[in-house]
Specification:
single chain; about 400 residues; alpha+beta; three-stranded antiparallel sheet; globular; binds flavin-adenine dinucleotide
Length: about 400
């Protein structure tokens, strides 16, 4: 249930393993999430295990170091594109991510659904039946659906999680993020010396950008351009996107290129605003045996880490690959209980580690206060690999189950 990246990945994987899958989505149609995503080595490995190809749609993010808002280097880009947040060029350091347009990723996941899945849009699930010997069920008020297994991939505000794991709480991380992809035809002229990707860190504010392909050379099946993501302290803004964009231009007015240029080239319809949030505490269980079947929480429905390590979608792909491996084909599992317990055991420890690493990195990257920021900048300059690579390595090292 839920046709975000996690639900699509799980639905396609289970259908290909022989399960009869019905996909319920409350939206009136299936669509991508907007902007772009970084897909780290663990996400790439999970997608590969799920037979979803990023060929021709994902671009390696060659990192361009970290600067202060005034342009001075905190961590200088190595000539070969190493260093910085996305991983250093040193031996054993985590590899760089790929950047992919959300609509291209959505299309790739849709292609992976095949033609054996029943897709029901406009189905806003509001009720959950998880008691007694009945098969698990969900309802919309008008329709009821029963299944051996209900996969709740209904996002950070999951109704199924609220019913089955009320102990979990969505907590504000204290900042808001804005993201956009500016298509190449609208990308402003930028200084030729700028690296293809980079990051600037200020006081509580952060700006990251990466190119999706090169101007004029994107494959016809990709949506090329420049992806950027910015964060600023505080709650999401209630104003319309035009006003949010005006605020961003004001907050980042003095920042070095390409910040002002990219904000100027952005149009309100490009903008995606999201709160920095975390599910803390996490649910005690991700799998819930009910009768001879059960429920499983997957992706943001099960675990939300702060976006500092940009790992949420990658973890959802790990979930989907793990679930498929534990369930096998429909004839091989009955009852489902042991597989659901194993899912909790395998996934909970893993995502807790990543969430902790992301939270800690966030405290560094979103630091506020003049003295704290000065100490942060000194530490980043001297110990970049310790502070950044360790957090990234926690997330990247993951091997798909057989
Ligand atoms: C600022 C920011 C940047 C990020 N950047 C990255 C990144 O670079 N890389 C990365 O890996 N991750 C990133 N993430 C995290 C990533 O976006 C999420 O983890 C991921 O989208 C979660 O996918 P999901 O399918 O679990 O949930 P969602 O994408 O939220 O999908 C849930 C789906 O369920 C549907 N739904 C909800 N409720 C119901 C209901 N009651 N009935 C029926 N359907 C329902 C929704 O309509 C939606 O389609 C970022 C997050 C943020 C906030």
């Amino acid at each position: 249930m839920g046709a975000g990246v996690g639900g699509l990945a799980a639905a396609g994987a289970l259908a290909r393993a022989g399960w009869h899958v019905t996909l319920l989505e409350r939206g009136d149609r299936l669509r991508g999430g907007g902007a772009a995503l970084l897909i780290w080595p663990n996400g790439v490995a999970a997608l590969r295990a799920l037979d979803v190809s990023l060929d021709d749609i994902a671009f390696p993010m060659v990192t361009g170091g970290i600067r202060r808002p005034d342009g001075r280097w905190l961590i200088e880009a190595a000539p070969n594109g190493g260093a910085a947040l996305a991983g250093s060029a040193s031996a054993g350091a985590p590899a760089n991510p790929f950047v992919v347009h959300s609509d291209d990723l959505h299309d790739a996941l849709m292609a992976g659904l095949g033609d054996r899945i029943e897709i029901r849009t406009g189905m806003d699930v509001t009720t959950v039946r998880a008691a007694g010997a009945h098969r698990p069920g969900v309802g919309t008020g008008k329709h009821t659906f029963e299944a051996d297994l209900i996969v709740a991939a209904d996002g950070a505000r999951s109704v199924i999680r609220r019913r089955l794991a009320p102990e979990a709480a969505l907590t504000a991380a204290g900042y808001t993020a804005w993201r956009a992809v500016i298509p190449w035809f609208r990308v402003p002229r930028l200084p030729a010396t700028l690296p293809a990707a980079g990051e600037l860190l200020g006081t509580g504010q952060r700006f990251l950008y990466a190119t999706l392909g090169a101007r004029g050379t994107s494959a016809s099946n990709t949506r090329g351009g420049i992806y950027w993501a910015a964060t600023a302290p505080g709650a999401p803004r209630p104003e319309p996107a035009t006003t949010q964009l005006a605020l961003l231009r004001r907050w980042f007015a003095d920042w070095q290129a390409p910040v002002a240029e990219l904000l100027d080239g952005t149009e309100p319809q490009d903008l995606v605003q999201q709160a920095g949030e975390e599910l803390r505490p996490m649910p005690r269980h991700f799998g819930f045996p009910v009768g001879s079947g059960g429920f499983v929480l997957l992706g943001d429905a099960a675990h939300v880490a702060t976006p500092d390590l940009s790992q949420g979608a990658c973890l959802a792909f790990e979930d989907a690959a793990t679930l498929r491996s534990l369930l096998g084909d429909p004839s091989s599992v009955a009852p489902l209980g042991p597989a659901l317990d194993a899912f909790t055991q395998t996934r909970r420890a893993r995502v807790s580690r990543v969430a902790k690493a992301s939270r800690r990195l966030g405290m560094v990257l979103q630091a506020q206060g003049r003295l704290t920021v000065r100490a942060r900048d000194v530490a980043l300059g001297r110990l970049p690999h310790t502070l950044l690579d360790r957090a990234a390595a926690t997330a990247h090292h993951w091997t798909p189950p057989p």
